[in-house]
Specification:
The chain is of the alpha/beta class and 441 residues long. The chain has 3 domains: 200 residues, NAD(P)-binding Rossmann-like Domain (Rossmann fold), CATH 3.40.50; 87 residues, Rossmann fold, CATH 3.40.50.720; 135 residues, Rossmann fold. 44% of the residues lie in helices and 13% in strands. It is built from 18 helices and 14 strands. α5 packs parallel to α6 and α10 crosses α13. The chain is elongated, with a radius of gyration of 24 Å.
Length: 441
């Protein structure tokens, strides 16, 4: 099968490389000529484990190609996936200008049947707008060409996207015709052979499924953070409470880890978009509004702990952050809690030093030289007054406390992910503050 992917961001590039891995001939299209040139040279614009090797292998086998010319790849494609960005507007709604621009460009070139698939995360009703935009271009040309639209939301976890695509929990596809279902059944046949469920439904339900799934996961995160904050006030231990509730099979243990809030490209945007969509239909998503409010407050919990420790006076203090990306396994800084913490610390007069295995370049692109970037985790703690663990990268899990003792001015650790054992930290001479657990000093 021949597939065209429009957009070489996180979703588009992973989708294209993985479909090529199953044997499809894939053309990835992007308007950014510089990005396309780099991809042709094997230079990947994002950090995702395994993606570089996948792109290189399938490019060498001539199954994966890169181009800036969508019109040249429209005809002959069994399916065209729209995987461009849908950034949130100021009111929280998804900006569909890029999605609809692609639909119109397809309409200007289309001469034979294809299935146009929205892969971008889009609100309910987007596929109807895509269909209308495409049909309008055909009408302008006074031609009649059969086409179908479909919705195929992605459920990729950054840092584990390749496995998520090749070994999915499920594949959700919204269609409105037998032809579209037949085409996409052929495309995803390699996954069905491995017993991964391929779920067909109507397009509106498919569009809503993506938002509902991410909003449910965001709800679990905000819920456990809310409980953790209560634990601190009543003297309970969130780790014990978590073990007590997650052994219930109805609840499970995923996404129930207390921390400094969620970030990234999906959860914040999708929660806001679903709240906005509901309002357009005169309905208030009261739970999701609370989820968003809790998450906003959670991003400043670690700052508040640091500020309270120093009596509200952080002027001239040096605070070290371990971890900057919104989660380990990615350089994604979108909606990262670290950015909120950094701003609060700088506004309070503190100096910030930081180390992250992969996200410092992206952080520098966003906030420049407002903080000091270190070459390793221990260099970042030299003459530091406090260490704050923000992102739970593996290399931070077993710190050398003897080295930290020698390097830091003040022996205090603020653990925003609860990865350390309080007793061990105390035995090594440090005061310790975490999320939802008793303070040891």
């Amino acid at each position: 099968m021949k597939v065209t992917i429009v957009g070489t961001g996180y979703v588009g590039l992973v989708t294209g490389a993985c479909l090529a891995e199953t044997g499809a001939i894939v053309n990835c299209i992007d308007v950014d000529a510089s990005k396309i040139d780099k991809l042709k040279d094997g230079i990947i614009p994002i950090y995702e484990p395994g993606l570089e090797d996948l792109v290189k292998r399938n490019s060498e086998k001539e199954r994966l190609f890169f181009s800036t010319k969508l019109a040249d790849n429209v005809n002959g494609s069994d399916a065209i996936f729209i995987a461009v960005g849908t950034p949130p507007d100021e009111d929280g709604s998804a900006d569909l200008q890029y999605v609809l621009a692609v639909a119109r460009e397809i309409g200007r070139a289309l001469e034979q049947y294809t299935v146009v698939v929205t892969k971008s995360t889009v609100p309910v009703g987007t596929s109807k707008k895509v269909k209308q935009a495409l049909q309008e271009e055909l009408d302008k040309r006074n031609v009649q060409v059969k086409f179908d639209v479909a919705s195929n939301p992605e459920f990729l976890k950054e840092g584990n996207a390749i496995d998520d695509f090749l070994k999915p929990d499920r594949i959700v596809v919204g269609v409105e015709s037998e032809d579209a279902e037949k085409t996409l059944s052929r495309l995803y046949k390699p996954f069905v052979l491995n017993n991964h469920p391929l779920i067909f439904m109507d397009i509106t339900s498919a569009e809503l499924t993506k938002y509902a799934a991410n909003s449910m996961l965001a709800t679990k995160i905000s819920f456990i953070n809310d409980i953790a904050n209560l634990c601190e006030r009543v003297g309970a231990d969130i780790n014990a409470v978590r073990r007590g509730i997650t052994t219930d099979s109805r609840i499970g243990n995923k996404f129930l880890y207390p921390g400094v809030g969620y970030g990234g490209s999906c959860f914040p945007k999708d929660v806001q978009a679903l709240v906005r969509t509901a309002r357009e239909y005169k309905y208030e998503m009261r739970i999701l509004q609370a989820v968003e409010d809790v998450n906003y407050d959670q991003k400043i919990v670690l700052f508040n702990k640091i500020s309270n420790y120093f009596g509200g006076n952080l002027n001239g203090k040096t605070i070290t952050l371990w971890g900057l990306s919104f989660k380990p396994g990615t350089d994604d800084m979108r909606e990262a809690p670290s950015l909120v913490i950094i701003k609060k610390l700088l506004d309070a007069g503190a100096k910030v030093k930081a180390y992250d295995p992969v996200a410092m370049h992206e952080t520098h692109r966003i906030i420049g030289d407002t903080i000091e970037y270190s070459t390793d985790q221990y260099e970042a703690t030299i003459n530091s007054d406090a260490l704050a663990l923000v992102t739970e990268w593996i290399e931070f899990r077993m710190p050398n406390f003897k080295v930290l003792n020698k390097l830091m001015n003040n022996k205090v650790i603020f653990d925003g992910r609860n990865i350390y054992e309080p007793e061990e930290v105390k035995e090594n001479g440090f005061e310790y503050f975490s999320i939802g657990r008793k303070t040891l000093s």
